[in-house]
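In response to the reviewer comment on reproducibility (Comment 2.3), we provide here a single inverse folding case reported in full, input and output, so that an independent group could reproduce the run without further information from us. The structure tokens appear first.
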């Protein structure tokens, strides 16, 4: 069963649209499929919400701006290159904590296990 729905979008750049059509055609793809892939990627990155940092958060000593977890590694690489050694250690500690939660989830089916 085909669940395809026809939707109308507005493209503000004719040049952009024509270039995208040419590339999709050259690759033997439908532009609608390319657009759907872009939408899926957008949802993957922003699906939990696109948290905006409020100016008041910058006054909080605990506030640390970082790339989103699922951003591409080159973004993370640039971020890490800009960190001093202390902030690198703090980030590494946070990543280790997250890894520990993932390990608990895999082993026990939940992250809410207290290990004594």
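Designed residues, in position order:
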């Amino acid at each position: 069963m085909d669940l395809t729905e026809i939707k109308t979008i507005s493209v503000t750049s004719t040049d952009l649209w024509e270039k995208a059509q040419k590339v999709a055609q050259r690759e033997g793809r439908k532009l609608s499929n390319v657009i759907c892939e872009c939408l899926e990627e957008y949802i993957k990155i922003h699906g939990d919400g696109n948290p905006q940092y409020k100016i008041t958060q910058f006054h909080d000593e605990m506030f640390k701006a970082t790339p989103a977890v699922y951003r591409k590694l080159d973004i993370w690489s640039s971020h890490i290159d800009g960190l001093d050694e202390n902030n690198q250690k703090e980030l590494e500690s946070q990543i280790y904590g997250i890894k520990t939660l993932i390990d608990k989830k895999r082993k026990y089916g939940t992250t809410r296990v207290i290990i004594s």
